């Protein structure tokens, strides 16, 4: 990310263990005061022990302190006294013979310096004398302060541990800093017990390096802790600094050379069965257990178990969460081991792994992971595995399916791939590419392969055409999509026995037409329904019902409730897995419900569709679903959520190359930004203009959405005249023939409002809005018509009638669940009440509107309500008792509960209602009782009781 560095391996990563480094410096400072200390520095591999040691030793060198630094290795573990011998060979202690008492020299002799004393030949008394001699040497060397570091002590020989035990139980009376560094998982029980006892005695200071915190990981990477990449890397690295820096510097799946070198140091000492088992474990990955390891290596079970025990002791392998399984300490270590194996052996091991896994009933995907690394071009079993794995992954991981299909198409000899098989694989790969969001690649491949499909392949051809048309539609090529589907539908009409896939072809024909603003043909929906039921295809049946509901919605007869309910019932009884092949059915039901003003059902279906496609990795439909969800969120007043959802939809649409979806998402961002951020008037205009450019007005039916966004943006920016011009141009004239009937009342209302603000004649816009709303049977269009009539009455000076119409509009918006539009109508009504001198009523409406707007992120509405409230005096609660008879039974129930102080969501939970429904009822209660808050409501109800 710009402005944040990523560590480059080979450079020293940033120091982040500040507290631990401070404690080590304090131990050095104590030497100057004549105090010696023993420090246990412990941590898993990669946690930063060596880095801390380097810093401390550099500090000690600058202070002029003598330093002895010994690093133990696994190869020397069985050499008695090897660690002691290495220590006595360090420069500050090299002249140990001159310092040790004569009797000790006689016991130890030259053999100790070579580290080759046979412990069997050394009496117990002499072993204590050896440790005593070393203590004498250390005390002499440390008389003016010294530092001794024993690194990787988990590899120390047992005899050298005698010295550590003595020093812990009886520390030197000298300013010596002894730092004992080890890995806790590999340390012997004796070493851990000795040091734990020293911690209890107070002779040992423990510095334990655990995983980094998220903030420390951010500092190491030079990025903010809340950056998404930091969190991803932190979790994958398990908080280990070495892995964190390595993952940040990983390129093309290759472990950076610096880290690979460090990790190789752990495995190069492996030999014989241990090396072979480690290599086989790298091949098997997460499927690693003793039985499979034996099958891959050819070793006997007891040999495998002994090798695994050694690898566990070295912390190369660790027990996995699943019983009897093993895994590498980290995937980077596995990668290093894997890369270090010979390529010929690796291919053979993968084939053996595939064979053994198949014997144990592993699924095709598991087998395909092995086969793809060792394809035998003439092995039909390998081809079968890849085909089956791809078919299963098509609806769970389409990107992976496309990869396996590509291997199948190019990894085998022509003898195994006849023309029919090759064509079928190419069609499947095109579908996998499309579902993975690679729309252009999918379309291009289908262009090339459809000519090779023989006519008798009816089912495959119908399936391929339906998907091809959907891809063209998502890319904005509606003419091409409809032409493809028209040919397919014509073929169905002349086919006495249409295949099962024919129903889906008819459904896609209607859905694609709707994408381009064409009303679906009810006859086509009926035919699709009959075919689906004939074949017992419940998924296609639900799609046909969705198409029928969409046709009813476009027809604007006001009879949409029953078709939508039937479609929702059919779709809701299907599982997510059943709907995964056709998530577009869920998307289009959500859009049909949105157009019909059924926002609650639309939101539920959009959320379900999003869950389905995210679970199945189908990126192609996700922008459509997110766009629908964001639109619903805008209508019901969740403006912040709507803008975030729109931005995510735009991001995905840009990735898939769906230009017109990008434009729709930009239009939605513009609409929400204009209402949520009044202080940035230029932002909505810029977003709307980008939306228009993306959708190429005139080439896409729904491009008028960008025009509507631009109209709102320029109106809010103070240019109502341009608003009128934009809308009339988008609608193709004053009758708005290019605007859907169900949206015309809204557009007529905006034109009327902007005409008044611009000083233009209002003409007959209110009458046109009323005519457009008649017969639709939906609250939202009627609400916009009432708003338009109210604006016209206000322009004529009839303020009382205008208020009545504005309040009626607010009620209708409430019924539709459109909280933001309801809030705006309440504010408009309150403004006229102020002019009429009815301040108490105005105050009540303004307070209600402000609370609703604040709850739903409508900053512009909050600002406007507060501006009007600031002009009104606070007259307290209205005089006289409340007229509770004006309330319905449900309103009295909600009023009584609200008066107790419960919040909206708590009231909704108690009455099994949605929070939006409770808000609507509370708004009506406040208006009917002429009050402004719950506190006033509580006082009125108490007085009435």
From TrEMBL:
GO terms for molecular function: adenylate cyclase activity; ATP binding; DNA binding. GO terms for cellular component: cytoplasm. Pfam families: AAA_16 (PF13191), GerE (PF00196). It comes from the Bacteria. The keyword ATP-binding applies. Coiled coil: none annotated. InterPro entries: AAA_16, P-loop_NTPase, Sig_transdc_resp-reg_C-effctor, TPR-like_helical_dom_sf, TPR_rpt, Tscrpt_reg_LuxR_C, WH-like_DNA-bd_sf. SUPFAM superfamilies: C-terminal effector domain of the bipartite response regulators (SSF46894), P-loop containing nucleoside triphosphate hydrolases (SSF52540), TPR-like (SSF48452). Residues 880-945 form the HTH luxR-type domain. Keywords: ATP-binding, Nucleotide-binding. One of its GO terms (biological process) is regulation of DNA-templated transcription. This is AAA family ATPase.
